[in-house]
Amino acid sequence: AHLLCVVAARPNLMKMAPILAALARQAPTVRVTLLHTGQHYDTAMNGQLFMDLDLRPPDICLDVGSGNHAQQTAEIMRRFDAVLDAQPPLAPDAVLVVGDVNSTLACALVAAKRDIPVIHVEAGLRSGDRHMPEEINRVLTDQLSSLLLTSEEGARAKLLREGIAPERIHFTGNVMIDSLRQQLPRAITPAATLRAHGHACPPAYGLLTLHRPSNVDDPAQLEALLGTLGELSQQLPLLFPIHPRTLAGLRLSGLEPLLARHAIVRLPPLGYLEMLGLMQKARLVLTDSGGIQEESTALGVPCLTLRANTERPVTVSDGTNTLAGTQPATILALARGILDTGGKRGRLPPLWDGHAATRIAAVIAPWLAARRGPP
Ligand code: UD1
To answer: Record's InterPro entries (predicted)?
Structure first.
C-alpha cells in the first residue's frame, strides 16, 4: 500500500516524526511519501525542527508560502492536486493529515474529492469557537476523513455528535507526547539556549508564547496583554520566543520597545530541543498555543492558557492547564497564585504514554491492507 503523509507547519512536525518511525518499524511494506506544503518555510519554523526530530526530508515540496486564508488554502489545493496528477501518477491509497492548520484541510479536501481516503491524526478536538480558523479546519477535516485517530478520550463523543460513524474513530493517544518523551533526554539546557541567543539565564523564569490571531493581530489587544505580562515580569522574568506572526504584529503596532521596558527576554522562534529544555525548567508557562498546553501537561509544569477556550480540555481536567482568558486582573491573579502555591500538579491523561504512534500504525496498516484487497 502507498500512504501519502502531509506536513505543513511547525506543530505538524512533532506529530509526523513518530508516525513515520512507527510505520517503518511495524509496517515496512507500506510505502510512505512525505509531502511538505511549505506553509511554514523559515529555518527557525521548519528546517531546524526536521533536524531536532530526526525527520527525513520531504519527498515533495509545494512551496506555497504565506497568504491570506483563501489564497493560502487555494494555492495548497491547486498545487497538491497537480502533484496527484503527476506522470507516472502517485496514486496513494490514502492521505494522512495531522492537526488543524490550513494545509490539513486543503489536502484533505483535494484527496476526498478525488476519492482518496483521508486519515486524520488528532481528530475530534473542538474549542467550540468558530471564530478560530483552526476550528473550521478541524470540523471540516473530520467530516472528510475515513479514519479518525483521536488524542484524548472526549474527542469521540464530539465526533459522534457530528454524525461520524463510530467504527471510523480510534482512540490512539497523543502522538505529540511520543516526540516529547523521545527527545527529552536530548533537551538543551536553558543556560545553553539563552547563552546561544546572547542572554544570561535567570534563576527562575516563566515561558511565554503568543501567536493566535485573536491575541496578536489586533494592536489594542496585543498592547493590553503585553502590559499585563510586563507587570508579571517584574515578579518573574519571562522568556519570550517570538513567532513571526507576532513579530509582525509588534512591528506594525510599534509595540516592540515595550518589551525592553519590562523583564521580557525576547528570543527568536526556537528549536524543539531548546523549547523542551525551557519548558521543563519553567516555573510557569503562559501560552495561546495548542501544542504547548499539551507539552506542559506532559512535563507537569503549570500552564496558563491566554485564551477564552481550549480544544484540548483534557489538559485542564487532568493536566496542569488553566484557562486564564485575556483579562489582565485574572491573568495576574492566576499567575501569582501559581508562584505562591506551585500551581496544579496534574496527572498524565490516558494514552499520553509515548506509544501513540505504535497504536496509530497498528490501526493504519491493516486498514490500508483491507482497503487494497488481495494483490
Ligand atoms: C499556523 C496555523 C496555526 C499553528 C501555527 C503554528 C493555520 C490557520 N494556522 O499559524 O494553527 O498554531 O501555524 O506556528 O494554519 N511566517 C514566516 N515564516 C514562516 C511561517 C510564517 O515569516 O515560516 C509569517 C508570515 O508572515 C505569515 C505569518 O507568519 O503571514 C503567519 O503564518 P501562517 O502559516 O499563515 O499562520 P500561523 O500564524 O503560523
So the answer is: UDP_GlcNAc_Epimerase_2_dom, WecB-like
